[in-house]
Design goal:
This protein is of the alpha/beta class. 52% of the residues lie in helices and 9% in strands. The chain is built from twelve helices and five strands. It has a five-stranded parallel sheet with strand order 2-1-3-4-5, sandwiched between helices. Helix 5 links the parallel strand 3 and strand 4.
């Protein structure tokens, strides 16, 4: 009978002496395997692009992006969701990470929770998803009961569903409307899918959230103009962003940031269009936060 063990769980006999390798050789092996991950993700770019465009279209209508997974996969979703507010100025409720076992599972193992479809159904129900929302189930094996159940529950609400797995022909992909299956193969440490599979999932989630936010106008060129300047490092970053976008002198930049309560996007528009802060806010609101459109409106108005 053919093995039912997914490739991500397979054991490579040629790596059986892993614990006997010199440290440098062990690290070279891991590094060589890690280099295959980017190529595997590259093979899924068209599928990822389709997901990005579908998610962005829904979020432009007020929809949310939700990640659901267990263990490493769940933690990566929670991490990506947590990074969106400071990076893109989004409301914390706009990108959400669900993890089997709840928030304590982010820092403590809750391995049994991944086998509980009922937990996924309850977590999804709390969100009251609509057809404008998207849920991305994340699972290295592609068969984690929590992730599969979350996708099925979300799909029943009419939300867009996406399956992100690291094996082909997964149950997760079958349950979702759109699927990204990044085949990374066996791990150097057999079954430890926090390694290549985790890296692949992180790369795809990076692409997904970043590209969606670019499509939604939350960047200007490659600048994080919606960054939230909530500490000294981020305030300095906001200043540099405004300087790069406008070429204005430091004193003018600091005045603009003060007038706009530290909002880099507003400060850029204020300086480039030579308008005041309330006008900048009105133009950005009319342009749905898209700085290029606001600039065009200011120059044509």
């Amino acid at each position: 009978m053919p093995s039912t063990v997914p490739p991500t769980e397979a054991i490579r006999p040629d790596w059986a002496a892993l614990d006997e390798l010199p440290t440098a050789e062990l690290l070279r092996l891991m590094n060589a395997e890690d280099r295959t991950v980017a190529a595997a993700v590259g093979g899924q770019l068209e599928r990822i692009a389709a997901v990005v465009d579908a998610v962005a279209a829904r979020m432009a209508r007020g929809g949310r992006l939700v990640y659901a997974g267990a263990g490493t996969a769940g933690r990566l979703g929670v991490l990506d969701a947590a990074e969106c507010p400071p990076t893109f100025g989004t409301d914390p409720a706009l990108v959400v990470g669900l993890i089997a076992g709840g928030r304590t599972a982010v820092t403590e193992a809750a391995e049994g929770a991944e086998d509980r479809p009922d937990l996924a159904e309850a977590d999804v129900a709390v969100l009251a998803l609509t057809p404008a929302d998207t849920l991305v189930g994340v699972s290295a094996s592609g068969r984690t009961p929590y992730a599969v159940a979350a996708v099925r529950a979300a799909r029943a609400t009419g939300a867009l569903t996406v399956g992100l797995a690291c094996n082909r022909g997964s149950a997760l992909a079958a349950a979702a409307e759109l699927a990204v299956e990044v085949e990374v193969g066996p791990e150097v440490l057999a079954g430890s899918t926090r390694l290549k599979a985790g890296t692949a999932q992180k790369l795809v989630l990076n692409m997904l959230s970043t590209a969606v936010m670019v499509r939604l106008g939350r960047t200007y060129g490659n600048l994080m103009v919606d960054v939230r300047a909530t500490n000294s490092k981020l305030r300095e970053r906001a200043r540099r962003i405004v300087a790069e976008a406008t070429g204005a002198d430091d004193q003018s930049i600091r005045r603009a940031l003060t007038a706009t309560d530290g909002r880099a996007k507003d400060a850029i528009l204020l300086l480039l269009a030579d308008i005041d802060a309330p006008a900048a806010t009105r133009l950005l609101t009319a342009a749905n936060g898209r700085l290029r459109e606001a600039l065009k409106a200011a120059r044509n108005g």
